[in-house]
Design a protein that fits this description.
The chain is α+β, with helices and mostly antiparallel strands and 112 residues long. The protein contains three helices and three strands. It has a three-stranded antiparallel beta sheet with strand order 2-1-3.
Length: 112
């Protein structure tokens, strides 16, 4: 499975702009950063309030869907080893910042 991981970002289609975090640039505001394999990046779209581990992220996705939109999902790094995916995910969360600690716009709860 090594070399099959990726890091992805969920972007809010309702919030267009220039969002720059170091070398990462987005045309919509990011609200979640994750890492995964296979179709992991799509799992959040089918979560329910009962099975989600992150109510902040769940509520943003539900609000976007209620406006007949879907989050924009972009893979920012692909075909990497799991350890590298963890490192990039953690660095990007710290760079962008989290809502829960008032450092940024991400709904991520855990930083590492």
């Amino acid at each position: 499975m090594e070399g099959k991981y990726y890091v992805y970002v969920y972007l809010d289609p309702r919030k267009k702009g220039e969002f720059v975090y170091g070398e990462y640039k987005f045309k919509y505001e990011p609200f979640y950063v994750g890492k995964g394999v296979n179709n992991r990046y799509l799992k959040h779209l089918t979560e329910t309030e009962k099975d989600t581990e992150n109510l902040f992220k769940f509520r943003v996705i539900e609000k976007i869907k209620s406006e007949n939109l879907i989050p924009i999902i972009t893979k920012i790094v692909v075909d990497i080893e799991e350890s590298e995916a963890y490192k990039i995910e953690s660095e990007l969360i710290k760079l962008i910042g989290r809502r829960c600690d008032s450092t940024g716009c991400l709904t991520n709860i855990v930083t590492d």
